[in-house]
Amino acid sequence: MATAGKVIKCRAAVAWEPNAPLMMEEIEVAPPQEGEIRIKVVATGVCHTDLYHLFEGKDKRGFPTVLGHEGAGVVESVGPGVTDFKPGDKVIPLFLSQCGECKFCKCPKTNMCDCSWSSNYHDIMSDPTTRFTCRGQPILQFMGTSTFSEYTVINQIAVAKIVDDAPLDRVCLLGCGIATGYGAAVNTAGVTPGSVCAVFGLGAVGLAAVMGCKNAGASHIFAVDINEQIFEKAKIFGATDFLNPKAYNKPISEVLSEMTSGGVDFSLECVGNTEVMRTALESCIKGWGVSVLVGWTDVKDFSAKPIQLISGKTWKGSLFGGFKSKDSVPNLVCDYMTGKIKLDEFITHKMSLEQVNDAINLMKTGDCIRCILNISK
């Protein structure tokens, strides 16, 4: 392409500081260096983790930054040493890398990677190295991706090549939320046929967890949320029972225990709320119950009474659904193309990049499951 090897000037939504609206800016995107890929972003979802960094984490060292980590696009150019990608390839940027060489990548028990930004910079949610500048200063690349920009530069270990006929404005959701919730059920929890499950929080991640429980063969799936308007949507993904904690004068864990003769086999917390994490654990049956933390947060401690674990329950966490990113995302795209998993049903809004603040406000109010931002043609 004509832009290969040159600095590209393009539009991006820049978060200059925490707890403030994003600003549309012209940024400079440097050419890819050794092992890097420059990507033209076509579409991106707006995920709660973007909002978490902006409104909850609020670590000023993580700004200014370009948010967005649930995107899909086309390779514009590649840096030296890149052999598996070429201009024109359809790709999904990955916030969780897979170098294939570290002890974590070589271990089948985990999807962690020593080369990921999260290994050393989870507090600011960005590697200090960036290919972005604006107004003469560096702009961080949020979670190593920054898909609220027309172009981004990412190391090849954090990019998945996908099939040419994949619709980028749908499969972009597999870059985070849907893979996270779905995998938390089928991989991390290991939901079994005939089991009873409870999913706490019915945003995109929670609904994807419901879908995972359904595909794994669960017999009953309790959908738990204070927003009853989402229950009909949850039914589409496989939920069988619906609970609003505010409708009861006792803890919802007690309600679930009474309804299931002791508790559910698997529970998944998809909110990122430490109190809900405890409730999800307490909702599990003793002896073999498994509770999984899925919602992202790093600002509060969580706790539980030791007897919850002494009695035989398991409490575990899940990042990106336990999927090894580069290996798994292309397969998930194919699963969508063949109808095994849903994506279209998560999308409630579509907007332009210039409307990103409107999309963020919709996410804050709970009126949106997933909004797709059309970044470029």
From TrEMBL:
<dbReference type="InterPro" id="IPR002328">
    <property type="entry name" value="ADH_Zn_CS"/>
</dbReference>
<dbReference type="Pfam" id="PF00107">
    <property type="entry name" value="ADH_zinc_N"/>
</dbReference>
<dbReference type="InterPro" id="IPR013154">
    <property type="entry name" value="ADH-like_N"/>
</dbReference>
<dbReference type="GO" id="GO:0008270">
    <property type="term" value="F:zinc ion binding"/>
</dbReference>
<dbReference type="InterPro" id="IPR036291">
    <property type="entry name" value="NAD(P)-bd_dom_sf"/>
</dbReference>
<dbReference type="GO" id="GO:0005829">
    <property type="term" value="C:cytosol"/>
</dbReference>
<feature type="domain" description="Enoyl reductase (ER)">
    <location>
        <begin position="17"/>
        <end position="373"/>
    </location>
</feature>
<keyword id="KW-0520">NAD</keyword>
<dbReference type="GO" id="GO:0051903">
    <property type="term" value="F:S-(hydroxymethyl)glutathione dehydrogenase [NAD(P)+] activity"/>
</dbReference>
<dbReference type="Pfam" id="PF08240">
    <property type="entry name" value="ADH_N"/>
</dbReference>
<comment type="similarity">
    <text>Belongs to the zinc-containing alcohol dehydrogenase family.</text>
</comment>
<dbReference type="InterPro" id="IPR011032">
    <property type="entry name" value="GroES-like_sf"/>
</dbReference>
<keyword id="KW-0479">Metal-binding</keyword>
<keyword id="KW-0862">Zinc</keyword>
<protein>
    <recommendedName>
        <fullName>Enoyl reductase (ER) domain-containing protein</fullName>
    </recommendedName>
</protein>
<keyword id="KW-0560">Oxidoreductase</keyword>
<dbReference type="InterPro" id="IPR020843">
    <property type="entry name" value="ER"/>
</dbReference>
<dbReference type="InterPro" id="IPR013149">
    <property type="entry name" value="ADH-like_C"/>
</dbReference>
<dbReference type="GO" id="GO:0046294">
    <property type="term" value="P:formaldehyde catabolic process"/>
</dbReference>
